[in-house]
């Protein structure tokens, strides 16, 4: 119905115009200087209509030409941005497929005209790095910094990641140190700093970083404990190497004491730290100091490593050392490690029978190579060679593990 009404209106207008054209053609005269133009009114309207149509046709043709040209080489800002978006998408597709050279080319070209040059340049830098072109990778990062001067953190993190991946540890550390000053609580920067220090064996710097790693929860509690022990184990080894060349005992143990003093109060209560410090002092010849350290901590922070080390140390007062260890036996009567330590301390006090009892009691609880060897050595000096040989054989069998208990020739056998 609506369409029919519109048709009637158009038909009425057409008849009205036709009637006006027949009844009165009109007359138009346009004069300018010596030139004149004469026409009927309706002729002028027709001419204007044709001119408008011609302009419209030229506009359509030009639009088509520029459209085709823009597809090949974008000329307008809008066309360039549209083309950049397409190149970005294709570049990331190539990147995920491992086509580094194509990805680098597309992403870098898209960065020049797209609306996200930072993202494109960072991805192009990664692609160039994967392709082994470190110089190009660095150049893309410089371009990213030039395009986005406020994105130092993102650019710096990417740069540090690429430097760590390519083994440029010193450069990575310099980059991360600068970033750490800008954002001291940034978890990922701290994590990469941890990696840098660890790979550079810079244990002192890593030790100083440990509180921040814990506070910012950069690593899990279990990983933190592992890193902490690894770090201070390395520091005590360094302290031993630095101190062993000195002739004075005070000078020898000074590096180890510095490491110990750098520990927090909670770290000093850790049995592994106590053991490492005590072992370092023992290896440096400061057994008196090591014995005092272990004696002060054994009751509060007992561990197998500490009690076994205590049995190998020769303190100032051997009798007092033995009585202290025997006092612990009241609370730990079935501790094989403590009994082994008591046997060794009894040997130092030349209490042969007591030492044998302690070693045998330890073996009843746990079969240890060390205990077999200690007992075999003791019995050999007590001229019980038959029993000594049996204990040594048991120790060897336990050490070998894979030795099968096969028949062996007797003493009467002739070869």
TrEMBL record:
GO terms under biological process: heme metabolic process; porphyrin-containing compound biosynthetic process
Compartments (UniProt record): Cell inner membrane
GO CC field: plasma membrane
Protein topology in the membrane: Multi-pass membrane protein
SUPFAM superfamilies, per the entry: TPR-like
Transmembrane segments: 44-73
Keyword Membrane: yes
Role noted for this protein: Involved in a late step of protoheme IX synthesis.
NCBIfam families referenced in this protein's UniProt entry, alphabetically: TPR_hemY_coli
Protein's name according to its UniProt entry: HemY N-terminal domain-containing protein
The species this protein was found in: Endozoicomonas numazuensis
């Amino acid at each position: 119905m609506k369409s029919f009404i519109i048709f009637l209106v158009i038909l009425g207008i057409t008849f009205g115009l036709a009637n006006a054209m027949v009844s009165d053609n009109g007359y138009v005269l346009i004069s300018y200087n010596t030139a004149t133009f004469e026409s009927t009114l309706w002729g002028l309207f027709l001419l204007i209509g044709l001119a408008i149509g011609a302009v419209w046709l030229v506009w359509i043709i030009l639009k088509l030409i520029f459209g085709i040209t823009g597809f090949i080489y974008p000329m307008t800002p809008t066309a360039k941005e549209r083309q950049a978006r397409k190149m970005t998408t294709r570049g990331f597709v190539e990147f995920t497929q491992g086509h580094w050279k194509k990805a680098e080319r597309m992403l870098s070209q898209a960065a020049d005209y797209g609306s996200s040059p930072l993202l494109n340049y960072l991805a192009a830098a990664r692609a160039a790095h994967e392709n082994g072109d470190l110089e190009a990778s660095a150049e893309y990062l410089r371009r990213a910094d030039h395009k986005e001067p406020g994105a130092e953190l993102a650019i710096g993190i990417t740069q540090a990641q690429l430097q760590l991946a390519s083994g440029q540890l010193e450069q990575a550390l310099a980059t991360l140190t600068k970033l750490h000053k800008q954002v001291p609580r940034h978890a990922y920067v701290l994590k990469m700093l941890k990696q840098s220090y660890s790979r550079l064996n810079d244990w002192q710097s890593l030790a100083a970083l440990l509180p921040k790693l814990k506070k910012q929860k950069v690593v899990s509690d279990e990983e933190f404990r592992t890193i902490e022990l690894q770090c201070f184990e390395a520091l005590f080894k360094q302290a031993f190497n630095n101190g062993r060349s000195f002739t004075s005992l005070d000078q020898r143990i000074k590096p180890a004491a510095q490491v110990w003093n750098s520990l927090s109060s909670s770290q000093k209560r850790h049995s592994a730290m106590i053991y490492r410090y005590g072992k370092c002092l023992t290896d440096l010849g400061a057994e008196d100091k090591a014995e005092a350290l272990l004696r002060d901590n054994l009751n509060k922070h007992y561990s197998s490593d500490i009690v076994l080390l205590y049995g190998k140390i020769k303190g100032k007062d051997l009798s007092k050392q033995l009585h202290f260890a025997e006092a612990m036996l009241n609370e730990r009567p079935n501790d094989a490690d403590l009994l082994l330590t008591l046997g060794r301390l009894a040997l130092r006090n030349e209490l042969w029978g007591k030492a044998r009892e302690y070693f045998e009691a330890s073996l009843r609880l746990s079969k240890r190579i060390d205990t077999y060897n200690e007992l075999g050595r003791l019995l050999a000096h007590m001229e019980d060679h038959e029993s000594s040989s049996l204990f040594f054989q048991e120790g060897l069998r336990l050490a070998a593990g894979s030795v099968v208990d096969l028949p062996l020739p007797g003493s009467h056998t002739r070869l």
